[in-house]
Amino acid sequence: MKRVIVFGASGGIGQEICRSLAADGWSIYVHYRKNVEVAQKLATELLEKYPKQDFFTTKLDFAASDQQLEDFVQSLFPVNAVVFAQGITKYGFLSEQSLTDIDRVMKINLTVPIKLTKLLEPMLVKHEMSRIVYLGSVYGGQGSALETIYSATKAGLSRFSQAYAREVASTGLTVNTIAPGAVATEMNKIFSKETLDEVREEIPLGRLAHGEDVAYWVKTLLQAESKYCTGQTIYVSGGWLI
Fold this sequence. Notes:
By secondary structure, the chain is of the alpha/beta class. It has a single domain (3-236), classed as Rossmann fold (3-Layer(aba) Sandwich). Helix content is 43%, strand content 16%. Helix 2 links the parallel strand 2 and strand 3 (55-59). The protein is globular.
């Protein structure tokens, strides 16, 4: 069985991850929070292209209660891989952030992924081959001013995945983080063309990443041949910052 749940599947990177994994033979839970139309369209697209695989849409708000998280996990068919591709940021000085803003970024990017990992572990370790991949950030290695909370959550994912990988290594469950640099997604459309051009000039490869640049590494880590790679943060940044 090759069944994965991709959290944040309706986002730009999440969609490309789903397309890449589907092409590699995976059945997929396509997770969304509110973009049901995008999720359903993606699932339909994949089912038409790969009719021998299963593609389900599934909804979960990461603001859910602990009981709702438990109920969600109990509702799933068995999976042997999990990809956490969801994530948000709140741009601005720390002094400008409300306590609610801080809590929301922490919860969606770090706290709930850790809770879901704990809840999914019994299901994952039943399989000879199982995988977890978190989507971190280059800012988890080089903190960014004006994105302090985001940087903290992404650094937390890297250290959590490193530590957790050591706990579960004997079970065959590998745990890794993919840390992109600047990616051409909706999240970065808040910046002006001039700002993005300045970033491009700082990137040795001369461009922002595309979703498929990140999806390639997720697909690779989920393959059976990657069984000796665990506890790692892999930077996909075009040589920028790291």
